[in-house]
Amino acid sequence: MSRRLASSGIRRFWRDARGVSAIEFALIAPLMLLIYFGLVEFCQGYMASRRASHTASIVADLVAQSDATTTQDLTSVFAIGDMIMRPFPSSPLSIRVSSVTIDANGVARVDWSRGNNKTLTARVKNSVVSDLPPGLIEKGESLILGETQFEYTSPFAQVIKTPIKFDRSYYLRPRTVDKVLCSNC
Q1: Are the C-beta atoms of 85 and 150 separated by less than 8 Å?
Q2: Which of 39, 56, 57, 173 is the most exposed place for a label (fewest CB within 10 A)?
Q3: Which pTM was predicted?
Q4: How far is the C-alpha of 91 from the C-alpha of 176, rounded, in Å?
């Protein structure tokens, strides 16, 4: 009789499905949480990348709209760039804006440059800019080069454990003059 009771107890145990959902949840929950945090971190990183790009374009655009600028004007433009990065911190954001002209020999040279003194410092006056895309401007023409560098650190650091650096550059022609001058750069 005890064998019969034992065998019927085993059959009932195998047919009993009351705890299956809890066991399945315990097995799947860690994977689902990892996927969730991975998506959150990816979306945050993508948003930081887009804001760094937007900051570079806005900084270059604001300078390209003016006839002339000063270091005080550029400091204000950099402050606008810091505000664009919100809700991300502005401390890992570096901004540089430069005026570049192609000389008679076809060499791109810096007319003036200003950085916000973090990672991107000002380019040296008359230094050669070798990273311009070919055919962007002709001899004697000028452009405004806006650059940003942002080091994104994930607030969760579960999936993206190391910081990611976003480098962005935008090239815009001056809108109202041939060359934007900076009186004290």
Answers
A1: yes
A2: 39
A3: 0.79
A4: 33
Number of neighbouring beta carbons within 10 Å of residue 142: 19
Q: What is the extent of the structural domain holding 87? A: 2-182
Is the Cβ–Cβ distance between 86 and 54 less than 8 Å?
A: no
pLDDT digits (tens, 9 = 90+) for 21-45: 888 888 999 999 888 888 888 899 9
* Residue 12, number of CB atoms within 10 A of its CB: 9
Q: Is-contact 174 147, C-beta < 8 A?
A: no
* Residue keyed to tokens 């750069």: 185
Query: How many Cβ atoms from other residues are within 10 Å of residue 63's Cβ?
Result: 24
Q: Give strand pairing partners of 168.
A: 148
Measured distance CA(151)–CA(166) in Å, rounded: 6
